[in-house]
Amino acid sequence: MLLMIRELIEDHDFEGLELDWLRCPFCIDPPAPAEKVALMTQWTAEIRKLTQAKAKQTGKRFPLGLRVPCRLGMLKAIGLDIKAMARAGLIDFVSFSNFWQTSWDVPFGELRRELGDRVAIYGVIEDAPNWLFALDPKSKKKSYRLLSASPELLRGNAAGKLAMGVDGIETFNFFCTDESAHNPAADKRQARYTALRNLDDLSRLRGQTKHYALATMQGLYMFPVWELADQVPVILEPEWRRSFRLAMAAEPKGSELELVIQLVLEKTAKTPDLGVSFNGSWPTFAAAQTDRLLFPTGIYTHHLPEHQALNYRFKVSEIRDGWNEVLVINGSRAKGTPEERRAHSARILSVELGVRRIEQQQPQSGREDVE
Asked: All domains of the chain, ordered by start, with CATH?
């Protein structure tokens, strides 16, 4: 591997190198003994010497970084002591991510405190917002969504990460949206490449429509032990509540935008009595049922028939830069048998938030059925 890396650095005209320990996170069998952790640190130091020699030869910086999962302790358990590498000046940047679904709740502030100020930290936009399946009513095709088919998802994911103080944005697997399995026809493409323009500029993202979500803990392409996807799905029994946390960006004062929080549920015979509070507001139980996604994602516009969604409206001025809280309350008072409690429970599959133009809102009463 070192010989391959040497060739890439010395014989080609790349401008930097990222070692991808996320695809796949295999190194040393855990728990790695101290001597093997030291061995991996020394191996990284050898690569650092190669990049420094290249920089001296060209007269330009040749940064060296890592793409890794978000759990530093688990990384050290397989031999990768990221904190030691940062302290020793062996790396210039670290890109944190999940495996294939993107992240929405990375504690970048904590990671920066762990790594210090000698390395840059990048947020990574992967190509799946989460593993919630959606429907194209025209073709009846069902599939997971692809984030790069949606300018709103791209903007929301980037804005949340930038508001948390990352030094830049990396996109990964963007091209997957153009694979034939996800496109309506061979001559059509859904990836929204134009949405990449200014995606690293938070000031330009403010005031634009956005779509936020949460990563799901069960899915297709993932290493479950590594994924930062701990919040959904979740079951709320009667009188239970659950707080969800995600990163968002505040919007300019006076913008003609509105915040819509959508709970996506497993469909039940009776719609659960759920209330939502945003950033400490008094909870509202005024929900509008819908079968539509907050924003179209490529050809996918609707939820599956076996799912149901509830929309709650809030003022966009309530959004904060950085961490935001969605508190969901099951207002049912069923306290009978376990069977009765299960009948009044809600299985929340996803929590999604849309920053939408007020005139863009769907009807707030009744059901928006598929034509």
From this structure: 2-208 (3.20.20.80), 234-358 (2.60.120.260)
